[in-house]
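seq as requested:
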Amino acid sequence: MSQKPKPTLADLRVEIDRIDAEMHELLIERGRIIDQLIEIKTRQGGGSAFRPAREAAMMRAIVERHRGRLPLDTVESIWRVIISTFTHVQAPYRVHIDVSGGDARMRDSARFHFGFTVPCVQHMGAADVIRAVGESGGDLGMFALDGGPGAGAWWTELVPPEAPKIIARLPFVERADHPAGLPVFVISRPLVDGAAREVVLESVTLDRWRAEIPGALHSIGAEVIGSAANRMGLGLLVARPGNVEADAVSEALRSAGGADVRGSEVGAHADRFDASALHKRAN
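struct tokens:
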């Protein structure tokens, strides 16, 4: 029985051209489906173009099934750009970014997650980003988890019901060598649907800090993300699991001795997904 001849370089290049053409056709097909999606949404009265829960689920699935020579960084970036660009096609938007802590890492994060089609607008501070998003017709904002230099209790700006809210923590996929690994929050005007609620964020005010607070919050699976003095005494940004009751944080703080405790939800995001082990296995 004769063996099948091994492919030549010319044969392999033909295969690569075929695959490239098929990938392009699939992107065109995706665009046609987006056209249908826009038509259906228009008939139904609209709806948010941003679907943080779906985006997080898609990114997790991509990472879990990835294998082979192509770096995970490239795959993740390609899909992030596809998702963000097609969202922009549905409803044009800008991303307002805080560069008060230096623009290099923030710009890398913005371009990695949103590509070059979506316009980026620079601001000096989380408060300016929050204000710009609140005044926009549907833009996003992005800033470091600490809000940047001198930000103070920036999360209190998200408390009013009509104010922007946190909808994502990026990167969706975390690992030690991530090329856009700066942890950032993404905000938008309040979403009607499609939000990820595995982690809920609360702005809490109380009289002062107490050593018992971290332990009391840990008992319900919550943690302090940020703290700053304010005119009410002390402002905390607290993250709690989405399946924990809304008043559990206030009760935990009171059990730790906190006085005049008041809390308001300021957003939510998908749970953190550490892909370090999967990344090593894929390589």
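The chain has eight helices and eleven strands.
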